[in-house]
Amino acid sequence: xxxxxxNIVHMLISVKYAPFCLIAFCVVLYGQSAYGxxxxxxxxxFSDLTKEHVLVMGNPAAQKKAVVFTDPDCPYCVKLHTxxxxxxxxxxxxxxxxxxxxxxxxxxxxxxxxxxxxSSSLQMLEDNFENKPIPAKDCxxxxxxxxxxxxxxxxxxxxxxxxFPDGQRQIGYVPADTIMAYxxxxxxxxxQPQKTVPATDQTDISLPPNAQARYNSKAYAIVxxxxxxxxxxxxxxxxxxxxxxxxxxxxxxxxxxGENVVTLTNDLAALGDFVKYFxxxxxxxxxxxxxxxxxxxxxxxxxPKTGDAYLVPYDGDPAFIxxxxxxxxxxxxxxxxxxxxxxxxxLDSCFSGAGGRSVIAKGARPxxxxxxxxxxxxxxxxxxxxxxxxxxxxxxxxGHGLFTYFMLREIRRGITEGRGxxxxxxxxxxxxxxxxRVARKTYNNEQTPQxxxxxxxxxxxxxxxxx
Length: 467
Fold this sequence. Notes:
The chain is an alpha/beta fold. It folds into 2 domains: about 25-185, Glutaredoxin (3-Layer(aba) Sandwich); about 200-465, Rossmann fold (3-Layer(aba) Sandwich), CATH 3.40.50. About 30% of the residues lie in helices and about 15% in strands. The chain has helices spanning about 45-50, 75-90, 110-120, 120-130, 145-155, 175-185, 240-250, 270-285, 320-325, 330-335, 400-415, 425-445, and strands spanning about 25, 55-60, 65-70, 95-100, 160, 160-165, 170, 220-225, 260-265, 290-295, 300, 310, 325, 340-350, 380-385, 395, 400, 420-425, 450, 460-465. The protein has a 6-stranded mixed beta sheet, sandwiched between helices. Strands 2-4-3-6-7 form a 5-stranded mixed beta sheet. Strands 11-12-13 form a 3-stranded antiparallel beta sheet. Helix 3 runs antiparallel to helix 4 (about 120-130) and helix 11 crosses helix 12.
């Protein structure tokens, strides 16, 4: 996870990590922050970052150094701090400059940051991280406000964030070995730039199989893939390709009539389109006994005031998510009113509310289920890419979302093997270990897909059924 440049200014911004997904870091929601801002960035050198309002950890004379933006109440800041302590405990050639950047979602973080800086006490920060009480102090300093302004000017969207002298950034919690690898000039394992899908993948999942499930005139689907956003949010890599591939599978192999499938991508997936198709088009078309399939690939965001989860339309703005986002609760309520026999929702995205945890990687897509299963209508089953404390990763090698890749691969396998039906629980049990294995082996990351349904829901819901 890095961006390079000669100084801090040049490394700012093509960081393609999800700033609303709190799975390995905590998100900033200070007004516009970096989202859509066109203000000229300040010309700040690395040495300028180390001169004031910092806590020094390690050998001040060390040549190997980094600046760490942290929050006293961020759970993954605590984990990273533990790793930093390991490093300075083992090496005398490393120093970390800690800058306190309290997020507004943590109500006590501001006064804690001010108290710690008024005391210039690294020990007080560590006591806080160990859940020990710290005294409230007020030295009439504006150090915390200056750090907040600095972080915003550098487009730092979350904590912890580590900045190295050459402009590399490490966003979110990482183990000590990853940081030491940088200091020792060894390659840091990171996601690679987006690349063309290899030709071999065309025979894997990108082309639907020739065999086809039974035609179902009562099957309806809405497929959404948003990769780029009007507010210039980080890209959700491969989201459009995933949506188009899902549509191909639905119409060419899974028996969905083409006229019954709506595909919305990028600027065709604005908030008005969500309302139009979920709340008008589906009710006008779905009849008793129908099957409905909803697929979403793109960003999600939390409402910091309510903790509700939102899908982020093309014109969505996380700074005004209540006005510009589409709540998951609203989606489920709309689907629950349909006369359909069964409704399947597949979410290749991730999200968490205040205090959540995340590991941010290239292409991570922010939306995580925060609702209990009882909040979901009885006839709706939700297949999500990851659990609430994880992220939904992309599968760079295959050019798809990791979850979507294995979902489509198992659908393809079921059709080519001539199975008469595919039950959603069977699909889940097939893709879960595969996603977990690749996420752990390839990205050193935990990702466990979730199947969410009410306890009193129908026992069997089929993705297709020839019987």
